[in-house]
Amino acid sequence: MPFELSTTVPWGRNLNEYRAMFNLRDEDLNKRIVSVGDGPASFNAEMTQLRKNVVSIDPIYKFSTAELRQRIMETKDVVIEQTKNNLQKFVWTKIKTIEELATIRLAAMNHFLEDFEKGKRAFRYVDHEMPARTAFGNASFDLGLSSHFLLLYSQLGLDFHLATLTEMLRICNQVRIFPILNLNAEQSELVADLIKHLESDFIIEIVNVDYEFQKNGNQMLQLTHK
Q: Would the keyword Transferase be found if you checked this record's keyword annotation (predicted)?
């Protein structure tokens, strides 16, 4: 079934959030990074401004800037309303209000939109739907990231997650996934099964991070080649 923009709710985060979510140190920023399911995050645009090396992968990149902007405008109020209706599931410390959340997210997505066409031409934004095999060779990247995609959407099933992770681990020396919760703000039921399938070949750690917006969402899953 072809990927459709109408089924997607774009929602973007910024470089500072990525640094906190993934424990990204200064030395990590200098690595070759691929970020899977990046959507309209400004991570790639901001890293490019710092002359760092990031490739973002997402099937929404097949659409135009205008189409993506339209979809963001169509869905942003829905996301904010859903958040208002579930205030108790979030931690309002670093982001203190719904209004601040909307400002941060729209700023990140606008930054992405301004960079998108240039980034596509530079092959920084790659239209690709996981878990299909990418065009990248083995160990093309030092670090692979997945923000609010793998594990969060546990309804996609174990086979999807395992195949996607396997492909990410083929092209990356290390993979970090944040958060390890599902959409109900509970630890994803897939974590234990994924660890069981992969622990013989990879060093797997659950790492505490300095980021918590979803309640109890302050851990990432880190997988490293042995």
A: yes
CATH code (residue 174): 3.40.50.150
Judging by beta carbons within 10 Å of its beta carbon (0-12, 13-18, 19+), is residue 34 exposed, middle or buried?
Answer: buried
What pLDDT digit, counting tens, does each position of 112-153 carry? 999 999 999 999 999 999 999 999 999 999 999 999 999 988
Q: Give one DSSP letter per residue of 110-143, joined into a string.
A: HHHHHHHHHHHHTT-EE---TTSPPSPPTT-EEE
CA distance 196 to 199: 6
Residue 152 · residue 183 · CB < 8 Å: yes
> Which pTM value belongs to this model?
0.95
Segments forming the whole domain that contains residue 51:
5-225
CB atoms within 10 A of CB 204: 16
Q: Which DSSP symbol is given to 149?
A: S
Query: Which residue matches tokens 């405008």?
Result: 73
